[in-house]
Automatic annotation (TrEMBL):
<dbReference type="Pfam" id="PF13378">
    <property type="entry name" value="MR_MLE_C"/>
</dbReference>
<dbReference type="Pfam" id="PF02746">
    <property type="entry name" value="MR_MLE_N"/>
</dbReference>
<dbReference type="InterPro" id="IPR036849">
    <property type="entry name" value="Enolase-like_C_sf"/>
</dbReference>
<protein>
    <recommendedName>
        <fullName>glucarate dehydratase</fullName>
        <ecNumber>4.2.1.40</ecNumber>
    </recommendedName>
</protein>
<keyword id="KW-0460">Magnesium</keyword>
<dbReference type="InterPro" id="IPR034593">
    <property type="entry name" value="DgoD-like"/>
</dbReference>
<keyword id="KW-0479">Metal-binding</keyword>
<dbReference type="InterPro" id="IPR013342">
    <property type="entry name" value="Mandelate_racemase_C"/>
</dbReference>
<dbReference type="InterPro" id="IPR029017">
    <property type="entry name" value="Enolase-like_N"/>
</dbReference>
<feature type="domain" description="Mandelate racemase/muconate lactonizing enzyme C-terminal">
    <location>
        <begin position="176"/>
        <end position="270"/>
    </location>
</feature>
<dbReference type="InterPro" id="IPR034598">
    <property type="entry name" value="GlucD-like"/>
</dbReference>
<dbReference type="InterPro" id="IPR029065">
    <property type="entry name" value="Enolase_C-like"/>
</dbReference>
<dbReference type="InterPro" id="IPR013341">
    <property type="entry name" value="Mandelate_racemase_N_dom"/>
</dbReference>
<comment type="similarity">
    <text>Belongs to the mandelate racemase/muconate lactonizing enzyme family. GlucD subfamily.</text>
</comment>
<comment type="pathway">
    <text>Carbohydrate acid metabolism; D-glucarate degradation; 2,5-dioxopentanoate from D-glucarate: step 1/2.</text>
</comment>
<keyword id="KW-0456">Lyase</keyword>
Amino acid sequence: MNLAITDVRLTPILVADPPLLNTQGVHQPYTPRLIVEVVTADGITGVGETYGDAKYLELARPFAERLKGHQVSDLNGLFTLADQVAVDRSRVENAVDVGGLRGVQTADKLRLSVVSAFEVACLDALGKALGLPVHALLGGKVRDAVEYSAYLFYKWADHPEGIPAEKDDWGAAIDPAGVVEQARRFKERYGFTSFKLKGGVFPPAEEIAAVRALAEAFPGHPLRLDPNGAWSVETSVEVARELGEVLEYLEDPALGTPAMAEVAERTGVPLATNMCVTTFAEIKEAFTKGAVQVVLSDHHYWGGLRNTQQLAAVCRTFGVGVSMHSNTHLGISLAAMTHVAATVPNLHHACDSHYPWQSEDVLTERLTFEGGKVAVSDAPGLGVELDRERLAELHRRWLDDDGALRDRDDAAAMRIADPEWVTPSMPRW
Ligand SMILES: O=C([O-])C(=O)C[C@H](O)[C@@H](O)C(=O)[O-]
Ligand SMILES: [Mg+2]
């Protein structure tokens, strides 16, 4: 068996995305992703997926060049190689990732977001070579299916008129009735029984009303609200008081560990985060201050599936819960998320996934949700197959783009509908 990498293919693509609203703006009609393939000397191909914006591509290209001859089994070596790739400082000088709403930007985090796709691709190739599923390479599954939550968004029916976009059949959701209707559809189509509403879009009173309407329509179902740090401590405490009874957790009500710690001290509602704890370096302060009760893992920016397991172990040590975050992603990442989630004993919350919002994929067969769960594949590797024709079409869309959509920019998308729009300064309310 020859596990040496002989070829690496990087394919940036643009995938359709509905007009989903968040505190920074609205999703663009197409969003960038990067598909990574590693090919071994034996002709086995492994696939991975990560963010596709320019700053990730700029790192992925020189990193890929260093991989020739690297063993797909040498996962630790990926991190050593990544450290050799310089990060353009201008890429990380802003304190917060503008498009992604996922916390601080550092050179390390940028590298980890790139390495994660290669780690997944190497695990996929290794699994195929050994005839073992990825979860087995991670120590084995502790569950046969992984539960996901419905990721509800305030949403327009369509992208602004006149700009090229794919049509979706979800309709608008801009008030409590619309949100409940969207949740009903999610439940009908995929069987989800827990719901997360992306907040920070409308004044808190409107979002409180939407969550109350969900609680009434779906009694006993776990509910979450996530304004991405758009509220002051006072507002956060007020919302927590109003919704304390019905929330499973409140996600990133306020920005930063000190503000989250203050909210936690003044409310009994568990606080979750994918913004103030997004790197190992941020754990100590947040956990010792009791700022968060649940950390949303994400194998992309934590640096892969094994780092996700390490994060879960740290959380277990400190009695902090684990859930899972998601940005726009395709089936390769959903498969990777499912494999790692299947191996984490202390993952007791349904994971987030944008996947139902993605009408396009690069797989020959889409992954499916049954009863809100994705079955854990026991096929070798990730258990997915790349649809090369589809990949080529979505890459063609990326090539044809004039650059406007190659970097996710929710504020720019919002300015098309509202030319006065500027990214709100935080706290917004
Ligand atoms: O849980 C979160 O904070 C997210 O999923 C951040 C994402 O960027 C989401 O808000 C989005 O895509 O609009
Ligand atoms: Mg969040």
